[in-house]
From TrEMBL:
Oligomer status and interactors: Homotetramer.
Cofactor(s) required for function per UniProt: K(+); Mg(2+)
Residues forming coiled coils: none
Designated name of the protein: Bifunctional NAD(P)H-hydrate repair enzyme
Keywords: ATP-binding, Isomerase, Lyase, Metal-binding, Multifunctional enzyme, NAD, NADP, Nucleotide-binding, Potassium
Binding-site positions, K(+): 60, 124, 160
Length: 505
């Protein structure tokens, strides 16, 4: 799915109205109906208690007014509070007039803030994507009053006060919604950790925005779901053999962290690799030969950490980093790898920390190298970010400057590409915030980068998505708290099976 800006979303609304030869009022009715259906499918009139619709002066307020009318017609107990304003949108005014007289309506005022109890269900329709600056005055006071209450809050389209795709001053008033119900396409603001407390759980409702317009609209941001990946992973060829699927090399492990090597190795083996060789220090020999007999062990002469780079010419992808430590000799191995490798590289964990400490090495990164930092590792490669938007700027600059792909890990892992695009991943769960999950990802990505039939972009997208999806399938069995990184590897197989498409021709 594409992620559009607030301005593009507005254009998509207009294009839809034009293409259908309908009216903005009809589109509002459609959006609000979808919202009302969403709500009434979850809350019966008796469960909902008193519903308070807070309506602003624009079309977001208009959505709120339509919803109030529809809920009233369905037998819910609704009242409306309007935010006084000099100007109202045309569709707001139309729907204000359509509101049945039986629905109580009043103006908000500094002396007229509503009593909010835990039994009140508040529908936040103050502002949506039209917000152009932080809230102030009465709107800000109302939002603070709401946030201080125990009421349940569902926001329409955006939690009011939150900008759709730009940072805002710290401490500005933003509704802290339990749920945000938005339309058609996700918004950038939903995907950033700093907004989690405002957005709550978010949901998307289709409202039939014009497909052609969306397809034509240029964007540098995507939300990666199964649809976006359809057709990218081919079924294995009938006469395929281990040579068809690449020979990967992993450099992983050090004394006390051979487990990281085992996890990455298992993950690589479960992600379709043809052959796999693991370079690990001598101390890991018995462990890896026992835990992952399918992999060939190429043992470093040093007992505790990796000190020598093996001959590279037979490998189709090389992953380095999980559990390797930061010894000077290991750094030299990394430097030689960057100079000599012809195969695609995947760099993670301590390989990234070593790069951060020796930034001159960044100039050696071969084009299309894939780096997989979590935010702290990324900071070591760049600089501390002021906020999530700044971090994305740093990500774009880094990828463009070094012609590399960066998987910035998190709840919505963001893949940055050398041409400045962002792909936010949709799979994964908080259970994956456990030691070793990242090592598993390195193994998955190394396997896929070794598939000559996948582009660097598709390999990265498929790998990140599959890693999260396998984590989701695992969590269905183990629960989030019970999930350990090894569980993810066991569900990679079913995940890739889901992703494989088999066109008839
Ligand atoms: N036909 C359409 O365009 C559709 C619009 N929809 C709804 O319309 C919303 C967007 O509507 P609008 O573009 O009217 O924008 P909003 O309703 O989000 O807000 C715009 C109004 O707020 C004012 N404003 C902006 N920032 C302010 C601030 N900080 N303090 C005080 N006032 C401020 C603007 O001058 C304008 O009057 C969407 O979020 C969605 O809820 C949906 O009904 C789908 C269809
Ligand atoms: N809340 C979350 N939701 C989804 N995925 C998550 C969440 N927390 C962590 N993950 C995923 O788990 C992995 C953790 O990697 P990392 O931080 O490198 O862990 P480690 O170094 O312990 O292996 C990343 O792929 C990340 O996207
Ligand atoms: K809102």
């Amino acid at each position: 799915m594409k992620i559009l800006t607030a301005a593009q979303t507005h254009q998509a609304d207009q294009a839809t109205i034009q293409a259908e030869n309908s009216s903005s009022d009809a589109l509002m009715e459609r959006a609000a109906t979808a919202f009302t259906d969403w709500l009434t499918n979850r809350q019966l009139p008796t469960e909902a208690g008193e519903i308070l619709v807070l309506a602003g002066p624009g079309n977001n307020g208009g959505d709120g007014l339509v919803t109030a009318r529809q809920l009233h017609q369905c037998g819910y107990q609704v009242r409306v509070l309007l935010l006084p304003a000099e100007k109202h949108s045309a569709d707001f005014t139309t729907n204000r007039q359509r509101l049945p007289a039986a629905v109580p309506v009043a103006d908000l005022g500094p002396e007229n803030l509503p009593a909010l109890t835990p039994a009140t269900l508040v529908i936040d329709a103050l502002f949506g994507t039209g917000l152009s600056r932080p809230l102030e005055g009465l709107a800000a006071t109302m939002v603070q009053h709401l946030n201080a209450s125990q009421s349940r809050v569902v926001a329409i389209d955006m939690p009011s006060g939150l900008l759709t795709d730009a940072p805002q001053p710290k401490d500005s008033a933003v509704v802290r919604a339990h749920h945000t119900v938005s339309f058609e396409l996700p918004k950038l603001a939903f995907l950033l950790p700093q907004n989690a407390g405002f957005v709550g759980e978010w949901h998307l409702l289709p409202i039939g925005l014009n497909r052609e317009f969306i397809a034509q609209t240029e964007t540098a941001m995507y939300f990666v779901d199964a649809t976006l990946l359809a057709g990218k992973l081919p079924k294995r060829a009938k006469f395929g053999h281990k040579g068809t699927y690449g020979h990967a090399l992993l450099l992983a492990g050090s004394k006390g962290k051979i487990g990281a090597a085992v996890l990455a190795t298992k993950a690589c083996l479960h992600s379709g690799v043809g052959l796999l060789t693991l370079r690990t220090p001598a101390i890991g020999y018995d462990v890896v030969q026992t835990a992952v007999p399918e992999a060939m062990a190429l043992i470093d002469p040093h007992p505790d950490f990796i000190t020598e780079l093996p001959e590279l010419k037979s490998y189709s992808a090389i992953g380095m980093g999980p559990g390797i430590g930061q010894e000077a000799a290991t750094k030299e191995v990394l430097a030689r790898l960057l100079r000599e490798a012809k195969a695609p590289l995947v760099l993670d964990a301590d390989a990234l920390n070593l790069l951060g400490q020796n930034r001159d090495l960044l100039a050696l990164l071969p084009p299309d190298t894939l780096l997989t930092p979590h935010p702290k590792e990324f900071e070591r490669l760049t600089e501390p970010a002021r906020d999530d938007y700044h971090r994305l700027e740093l990500l774009r600059t880094f990828c463009q400057q070094h012609r590399c792909y960066v998987v910035l890990k998190g709840a919505y892992t963001c893949l940055g590409t050398p041409d400045g695009q962002f792909y936010f991943n949709s799979t994964g769960n908080p259970g994956m915030g456990t030691g070793g999950s990242g090592d598993v990802l390195t193994g998955v990505l190394t396997a896929l980068r070794g598939h000559s039939f996948l582009s660097p972009l598709d390999a990265a997208l498929l790998g990140v998505y599959a890693h999260g999806r396998a984590g989701d399938l695992a969590a269905q069995q183990t629960g989030e708290a019970g999930l350990s990184a090894g569980d993810i590897t066991r569900f990679l197989g079913p995940t890739f099976q889901e992703l494989i498409t088999q066109p008839l021709f």
